[in-house]
């Protein structure tokens, strides 16, 4: 288990970058995703869908657009190109994905698995 500080930090990032589509608690079906006619998957069930193991490497590559998607026109942004930009709305790190931020985000995702 990771420290609660990392997880809390990751939760903030998730709220800004992901919750619109994936829902405040990662349960899926945020309203923009419904408006787009797609349903963003429930992210709390990744571990369950994966035989009880959280595939951190897969998730990380997926978010960074490094995996071939089943649907090439998927609505899910490629964060390696758009960056985690809401984290620093005014700062110099705008549009970047900082390694610690990304690690915290993954810690958060791992922590919300059911
Ligand atoms: C604009 C809407 C949108 C945003 C914003 C978004 N996603 Fe997604 N996400 C989707 C959609 C739609 C899918 C399913 C289609 C696909 O495979 O791309 C998906 C799929 C995923 C998957 C794969 C789940 C699985 O079980 O295979 C992961 C992991 C994921 N998103 C994480 C994130 C994270 C973390 C963020 C924030 C950094 C984020 N998403 C932001 C729409 C979004």
From TrEMBL:
<protein>
    <submittedName>
        <fullName>Cytochrome c</fullName>
    </submittedName>
</protein>
<dbReference type="GO" id="GO:0020037">
    <property type="term" value="F:heme binding"/>
</dbReference>
<dbReference type="Pfam" id="PF00034">
    <property type="entry name" value="Cytochrom_C"/>
</dbReference>
<keyword id="KW-0349">Heme</keyword>
<dbReference type="GO" id="GO:0009055">
    <property type="term" value="F:electron transfer activity"/>
</dbReference>
<dbReference type="InterPro" id="IPR009056">
    <property type="entry name" value="Cyt_c-like_dom"/>
</dbReference>
<keyword id="KW-0479">Metal-binding</keyword>
<dbReference type="GO" id="GO:0046872">
    <property type="term" value="F:metal ion binding"/>
</dbReference>
<keyword id="KW-0408">Iron</keyword>
<keyword id="KW-0614">Plasmid</keyword>
<feature type="domain" description="Cytochrome c">
    <location>
        <begin position="5"/>
        <end position="113"/>
    </location>
</feature>
<dbReference type="InterPro" id="IPR036909">
    <property type="entry name" value="Cyt_c-like_dom_sf"/>
</dbReference>
